[in-house]
Amino acid sequence: MTESNKKSIFEPAREWISENKLRAVGCLWLSGITGSVAYNWSKPNMKTSVRLIHARLHAQALTLAALAGAAVVEYYDHKTSKNAERYPRFINMNSYAQKK
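RESULT FIELD:
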């Protein structure tokens, strides 16, 4: 596989994540808590409350990592000027000019 083919395979996923950051974080949280509950349920000699607390903690850590990743993606997109004008076009800076 050439380098251009590798980029074309991951490009649609990257674009979707870039456009739907919070949805991606939510899906990651849901899959993280589901996987953690399944993993903790396989361990015997654990109370149900402890299993649920561990699942929540694992999902919370995964969510924080996903939010940090989304912030990095947003920063990268803004720095590459692909979306640099995405937010300023919605804000009319002249209406917020300081009055003398």
